[in-house]
Amino acid sequence: MASRTIRTIVALCATILLAACGGGGGGSGPVLQPDTPVTPAPGPDPEPEPDPEPEPAPDPDPDPPEAIGRTLFESGQVRPIALAPDGSRLFVLNTPAHRLELFDISDGQLSPAGSVPVGLEPVALAAASANEVWVVNHLSDSISIVRLDGAAPRVARTLWVGDEPRDIVFAGPGNRRAFVTAAYRGQNHPGFSTADLKTPGLGRADVWVFDAAAPGAGSGGEPLAIVNLFADSARGLARSADGSRVYAAAFLSGNQTTTLLNEAEVAGAKPGPTENHEGVRQPDTGLIVGFDGERWVDESGRDWSHKVLFELPDLDLFTLDAMAETPRLLDSQRGLGTVLFNVINNPATGATYVSNTEARNRVRFEGPGTSASTVRGHIAEHRISVVQNGAVTSNHLNPHVDFSLPEGASLPASDKRLSLAQPQEMAVSPDGRTLYVAAFGSNRIAAIPTADLEAGRYDPAATHHIPVPGGGPGGLALSVDGDTLYTLSRYTNTVSAIAAGSGDVLASHDLFHPESASIRRGRRLLYDAELTSANGTASCASCHIFGDVDGLAWDLGNPDGEMLENRNEFVPLRGPTQGVFHPLKGPMTTQTFRGMADSGPMHWRGDRSGQNRAVVRGELESLEAAAFKEFNPAFVELLGREEILPANLLQDFTDFALAITPPPNAIRNLDNSLTPDQAEGRRVFLEELTTGGALTCNHCHVLDVEARQFGTAGLMTNEGPGITEDFKVAHLRNLYHKVGMFGASVPRPGQQAGFTGDQVRGFGLLHDGGIDTVSNFLASSVFGFASDAQREQVVDFMFAFDGNLAPIVGQQLTTGDQPDAAARARLDLLLARAGNARPECDLVVHGVLDGEQRGALLLANGRFRTDRSAEDSIGLQQLLAVATQPGQELTFTCVPPGMGQQMALDRDGDGTLDGDQS
Questions:
Q1: CATH class belonging to 76-160
Q2: Is-contact 711 732, C-beta < 8 A?
């Protein structure tokens, strides 16, 4: 075969998709069978250490690598703190410890009153009554119904919902209906099928509705309704004062932008500059365009409407009729923001407030902006949008910032203290006159006059700022009398009671924190805009939302940048390569932090190569760690910080970022098996020479679970037609997250360009998001499948691609007296996956025995070790007998391998079993 053909084959196979900042290092090895589990290397649980101040002093002896042994998912908290209806108790989610914490606040103090294990990554809660709390478990795809009556608080029921649930409110008749947001996918969704991932025009978000008094007789519950939303994902919920309406906000809503694929028409008409300061012409790339209300235009105003083959309605806020016999969608509102965090309704005025950011990805370039535009220090605008009487009023929370300041310049300290970044959870004062907003990226709560917000005249000078102990307020609740604010710091896991008027800290309590000190210090570097930008508004989390993606593409080249030599290793059978990275790189979709530790050089092009590795803690650091540290200049060139991070902060950030793990695949069967079509697709992927008759898919997108290669071995490829840059082979773990764009600007060979109607996403696959579907990519003439059906089988397998954790991780079952057949089948499934020859999870069980919280862990011999050293291990039937007694329900949870010991037996991390008193 001619070298040009092979080069094209390798290139197209390599740049196929997706979204991690890198591909993994190491050679290929034998590929495991579909049901082979992935077992992360366990490490000891660290002792909790106090969190440092925003500018921590250099740490000469940071945590060793083995102290970072827990699986970190970095789920975004949505509603992690709430008051009991009578105001006597405070409910708080301990997300890193996967528990619900209870506090007695009747005497004005924070007195611990109990702790209940729930599901993995709890992110939201709501009180159904004084004695019942519902907890949303983001990674477990479940709802824990916690009862507070009886001998001890306990999980009395577990409901199964769609993938990655996020928020919950009670509304409807008597406020006894539970509304829960989740993605439209997942193994627990009764109506979802893989075919839906290939169907255009579908909503990708749901609101599940349960009758709180009777959530269903089935083992996982039975919803009254699942209301589909025409959005990519959903997050925040709110209810009207009378409970008749529920408001659901899209999460990664988008902003009516998309990428036109590179072709002759686009390449010849891109707005300048098209060369760097040395006069070297940039590679031909795609182009970001946005809808201006009538036309699709680029930044120069040129009309590209003829190239955009779909519409983006950009629906943001959905109103549901909570009183209807079957809850239903009433209407929707657009134009609220790009990333929508939380929602709240003002009972006094009827206005609905949405905390959000508005991305500025229509502006090109980073850097000093001396020869072109730049988003430096002004990546996104942080806002509160108000919906009232069908109209939207948006308030920019940082109008005092002069974003035109030259590179390196900083605001006066008094101005920076007025900045608000990443507004999230909110509370309204009893009289409706004040909105309290948790500014997550600014370490404070802002008290804003609601009249100013509703009139669109937000004034920083009229806003009262209340510092939050520990920083990073991830939760916010207001006492019934409006005098006390209760907050939860995400950085230090600290609960605080603060006087709303004076800002005085009335009480504070540090929750148990199983994460290492360096992880906690590193987390701040992702979010803290005060620490990472000169103007207090920009952080890495402006785009990497909770360490993940924002669903957008950005053109963040730098016309003032230099050419960079490409020294990365390429896949075999390559033709001539570019050999350099041009600083004008064109549109690139935001990549996830999840899974970077096994993904090799970083960025789509691998231009953070990790070539200059250093000795850290006495050992040579990984290529990935060295590559991540090469992002340090972005703190100045993109975020607008006065200087790059010092070495100790950069090391903490690296430790944190590389610890974040992708979630289990939400498409693959829970028993880790493949459907017949997926299995055949896997065989074709690994064995058939479908790429020009010379290569398999696996030649580039290496799948080797034992080597922790999930679609990439971290190598580069030179690119084929339409792509004029070299790219690193991307991993394939998060493909199913990137569904919702149908209608690329350049149809594949043999396809007719046709208008596809309304869609929920403006960006799809490939580095620039310009390819709409995997099916269309694999329809390229360079691929030679035996039939269209065979190609679709490969697509099906890629949606169910292997990942770091098996699908069973996080799944739960609560059982009491006389479990039904479905409950028994689920229990058998959990036992089988934990007891596999290569265990896919640790199976833990929690419940109440003789009035005490107890835990147990499944052993390799099939028996359970309890949390008391004096007790013998017990068999399953003995364990189930406990659950036959009222108030002694048992909850089984599959947790990541290596975490069972701490979660079931040693939740305080002190090296002793929970039940031992010595």
A1: mainly beta
A2: yes
